């Protein structure tokens, strides 16, 4: 055999080898947290989802509610100090609505894996405590996600309970009597595990995250069809599985942003409304407070929350707050928009 032949074969092998892909640079800007909450009392996977109540008379005295899905539910101030704790078994997601000064808090209750429940509270804003109103069945299955919607035309209150298997049960919440009445009024279905949801009171649109698939939009009114429209995909770049918590930054009649926890790469993805087009993403970190990773629940409330949050407050669960247990991080929404060069 010619001595040149092995060399020629080597050249041929090199020429046909699969090229190594050039990694896509991570261009996500980092935004520093301004505060963080006291850690939850239980270890491992515990803190899950926040809700925000803005005090219209004194924004600096606003409150943040956060679930510990192994023990109960916390109320924090804007410095992150725990003001109260209410024991409750396996509350997962939480949302609230301020109904002319009466603040109603609703949480998905997973205490019974076979039968989902809605846990209702009122928030005593003066004492920063939650007053339980009871547990109400919503449907069969394990209750994961929870979000509220107030219908614009008559101010009726509804909740959406997202079951682990992807079913979404809509409940009507009647608060006219001394004891609330919670009635399941329709069900919708996604194919696989889902959790995060948020409803837009302006437009009557419900957004739900199917964790490994993407984001879906449904009409929130119980008389509407039960079919949804897929509006964004888990593509491994702009949104990385699991797609988890959802939050809204409304602007005008139907504009603003939809924010999603892209848990797989510890980023937060923004979509511009109403068309749900990708607008950018960011991370939390780079300051004197540690950043976040593997976030479950998020929440966002616009408005003046004092000098640290002049245009809004963004709150994110931190999946790894070592050496302490998990907690929630507070971020200025103005700082997010500045970092992303968005308006």
Throw out a few tags for this protein.
343 residues, mainly beta, Neuraminidase, 5-stranded mixed sheet, 4-stranded antiparallel sheet
Describe the structure.
The protein contains 2 helices and 25 strands. The chain has one domain: Neuraminidase (6 Propeller), CATH 2.120.10. The strands form 6 sheets. It has a 5-stranded mixed beta sheet with strand order 1-22-21-20-19. The radius of gyration is 22 Å and the shape is globular. With 343 residues, it is mainly beta.
End-to-end CA span: 71 Å
CATH superfamily: TolB, C-terminal domain
Helix content: under 10%
Molecular shape: globular
Biggest sheet, strands in spatial order? 1-22-21-20-19
Largest sheet composition: 5 strands, mixed
Q: Any low-confidence stretches, pLDDT <50, length ≥5?
A: 1-23
Please give a quick description of this structure:
The chain has helices at 4-16, 333-340; strands at residues 30-31, 35-36, 47-53, 63-68, 72-76, 82-87, 91-99, 102-109, 115-124, 129-140, 143-150, 157-163, 167-174, 181-189, 194-200, 205-210, 214-219, 229-233, 243-251, 255-262, 267-273, 277-284, 298-302, 312-318, 327-332. It is mostly beta strands and 343 residues long.
Give the topology.
Elements (H helix, E strand, L loop, with lengths): L3 H13 L13 E2 L3 E2 L10 E7 L9 E6 L3 E5 L5 E6 L3 E9 L2 E8 L5 E10 L4 E12 L2 E8 L6 E7 L3 E8 L6 E9 L4 E7 L4 E6 L3 E6 L9 E5 L9 E9 L3 E8 L4 E7 L3 E8 L13 E5 L9 E7 L8 E6 H8 L3
Parallel strand pairs: 1-22
Antiparallel strand pairs: 2-25, 3-4, 4-5, 5-6, 7-8, 8-9, 9-10, 11-12, 12-13, 13-14, 15-16, 16-17, 17-18, 19-20, 20-21, 21-22, 23-24, 24-25
